[in-house]
Amino acid sequence: MTKALVLSALITASAATASAMQEANRAKPVENPDGTQATTLLVCGDTYVSAVQPDLIPDGGNYVDGIIWDFDARDVCYQMGLSPSEMDHLDDCKPIDGNTRILATSSHHWAIIINYATKKIEFWATKCSNAHSAEVLPGNKIVVACSSPCDQLQPHQPAPALRPQPPQRTATHRQPAVSPRSGLERKAPAAICHRQKETRHIPA
Predict the structure, then answer these.
(1) Is 33 exposed, middle or buried (0-12, 13-18, 19+ CB in 10 A)?
(2) Cis bond before residue 29 (omega within 30° of 0)
(3) Strand, coil or helix: 42
(4) In this structure, what is the dihedral angle of CA atoms 150, 143, 169, 98, given to the nearest 10 degrees?
(5) Which of 6, 59, 143, 180 has an alpha carbon within 20 to 30 A of 124's alpha carbon?
(6) DSSP label of 151
(7) What is the pLDDT along the chain (204 residues), one digit of tens a residue?
């Protein structure tokens, strides 16, 4: 047991050191003449979420030359109760909360909110079968789109206090009750299953 804990600590320390070295070698963000930040693209794949500035990429160069920020999901696997091998297949990422946070999903069944400034995760959900997209809803709720065993929308109440979302006109419907779960995750006990037009209960 002690050996396993020591090994885990060494792996975590090694990952942190590698991440710090990568950060030091990253390109510096460029600004427009008016002082605003130049066009920045958010991309994801494998275990990474990266912010890329096309203006930093030379003609015929690789997108890696334009990376100004990146996040490796393997750095937070143990915090989420997962293994490094379960942290790939990132398939969607988008800026939220005034570009201060990133909402990302993986088809390895999880979704997270990353703080852009600190690279710490402020919310995670790990029971989203084949998660492939997520959105912030009015009321600061997160909905995750899943596709196994059928098409589902999983509502969540995240821990961070996101900026209030503007009201939207939507059809009136009953919201499922929200109950607390482990870690920072809060999940409704049921998911909306559209393909079979029925409510399927998610096992705890």
Answers:
(1) exposed
(2) no
(3) strand
(4) -150
(5) 6
(6) -
(7) 444 433 333 333 444 444 444 555 566 677 777 777 788 999 999 999 999 999 999 998 898 999 999 999 999 999 999 999 999 999 999 999 989 999 999 999 999 999 999 999 999 999 999 999 999 988 788 999 998 777 889 999 865 556 555 554 444 444 433 333 333 443 443 444 444 444 444 444
Amino acid at 196: Q
Classified as helix, coil or strand, 203 is: coil
Whose tokens are 């779960």? That residue is 181
Q: Which of 115, 93, 121, 94 is nearest to 183 (CA)?
A: 121
pLDDT of residue 146: 92
Q: Where are the beta strands (DSSP E) in the chain?
A: 41-45, 48-52, 67-72, 90-96, 101-106, 110-115, 121-125, 133-137, 141-146, 152-156, 179-180, 186-187, 190-193, 198-201
**What is this structure's pTM?**
0.66
Residues sharing a CB contact under 8 Å with residue 18, sequence separation 6 or more, in sequence order: none
| Residue of 169, 103, 105, 112 whose CA lies nearest to 136 | 103
